[in-house]
Design brief:
It is built from 14 helices and twelve strands. With about 350 residues, the chain is α/β, with parallel strands linked by helices. It starts with 5 loop residues before the first strand and ends in a 6-residue tail after the last helix.
């Protein structure tokens, strides 16, 4: 197996608010290789953005190790750390806030090309900037190079942000809700651009979203990690997680998605929760963090012992006592990739492209 670009091993991030310890991210491990895509999905406050900052080297974990090419990121010398920061780029949620309002597009794209000596001179840098704009579907580039951020639409600004991330030829891009601030009408177009970049350039993606439908569309051939209160509760291939969700929280997220087909809406089973209130990170419940809201809650088990993320088949892992016990007893059939794919297509009939 080839060496992963990036590896997280039992990473936790804690913050202090007065005397209260907030466990924003807890005991998360995964790997990303060239061309891989992993979607982090969960409600607001689940730790997605915090984890994205850890991956991008913007935030040091409280516990655990982040490895780039097998080396601990936070033990690298200054030169190696700069190479890591160049290899892992981040596209923020709000492109207007992340772009300098007093810089034109050309003044945003040219400095990284010159600083990292990717371009020979300013003229070469401008040519490369124009090619980058073409790569993210901003054509003709001459029309966009002299513009300021306020002269662009939200989708155009986000494409400039993606082009800026590509200036340093990264190996991994952290896309933090990269499509949530653009109009729904152009969201799919932007996702198609990101997918094409992954296929053509071999760039890996950590795609952060609260929308399982977007995760399914972008990462059909990748994986989904479902986060709840800073912990991964389900991890597996996208078709399996979407078509055959195992954790009650994943099932609740899917049940909340609107259906474009009214017939599917009428046939869709409604999943109720014991409570609509999300527990506070400052006062996490004992045992499984989801048990106060879970219909499958087992007293004396779920409220006492915190479940660990455990494999239930070769590719799926779930943090749920009930699911693991049912799988061990044979009450649940093994996941079928083809069946899961079919059910996912029926639930969300997107065109995969």
């Amino acid at each position: 197996m080839p060496e992963p670009i990036l590896e997280l091993q039992q990473v936790s991030v804690h913050f202090r608010r007065g005397r209260v310890l907030l466990r924003a991210v807890e005991d998360i491990s995964f790997q990303l290789g060239l061309g891989d895509v992993l979607c982090l999905v969960g409600e607001s406050g689940s730790g997605k953005t915090t984890l994205g900052k850890v991956v991008a080297g913007l935030l040091r974990p409280t516990v655990g190790v982040v490895r780039y090419r097998g080396q601990d990121v936070w033990r690298l010398d200054s030169g190696a750390f700069r190479r890591f920061r160049r290899a892992v780029q981040i596209v923020h949620q709000d492109p207007y806030a992340s772009l300098n309002p007093i810089r034109t597009v050309v003044d945003t794209l040219v400095p990284p090309l010159l600083h990292h000596r990717i371009a020979r001179n300013r003229s070469d840098a401008i040519e490369r900037a124009a090619r980058l704009l073409e790569l993210v579907d901003l054509v003709p580039p001459e029309q966009f190079l002299p513009k300021y951020p306020h002269q662009l639409s939200g989708g155009q600004r986000q494409r400039v942000s993606i082009a800026r991330a590509l200036t340093v030829q990264p190996e991994l891009i952290v896309a933090d809700e990269a499509t949530s601030m653009v109009d729904v009408s152009i969201r799919v177009s932007l996702l198609n651009t990101l997918r094409r970049l992954r296929e053509e350039l071999g760039v890996a993606f950590l795609f952060i979203t609260h929308d399982l439908a977007m995760a399914k569309y972008f990462a059909w051939q990748g994986r989904i990690a479902v986060l709840y209160l800073g912990r991964v509760v389900e991890l597996g291939p996208t078709p399996s997680v979407i078509g055959d969700p195992l954790h009650p929280y994943t099932q609740a997220l899917l049940a909340a998605l609107p259906e474009p087909d009214p017939d599917l809406t009428r046939r869709k089973s409604k999943l109720l929760l014991r409570s609509l209130d999300i527990p506070s990170l400052a006062h996490l419940p004992s045992g499984c963090p989801f048990h106060p809201r879970c219909l499958r809650f087992v007293s004396g088990l779920c409220d006492v012992e915190r479940p660990s993320l455990r494999f239930v088949d070769a590719h799926r892992s779930v943090a749920c006592h009930v699911v693991v016990q049912e799988r061990a007893a044979g009450d649940l059939p093994p996941s079928s990739q083809e069946a899961a794919t079919r059910r996912a297509d029926e639930r969300m009939p997107f065109e995969r492209g």
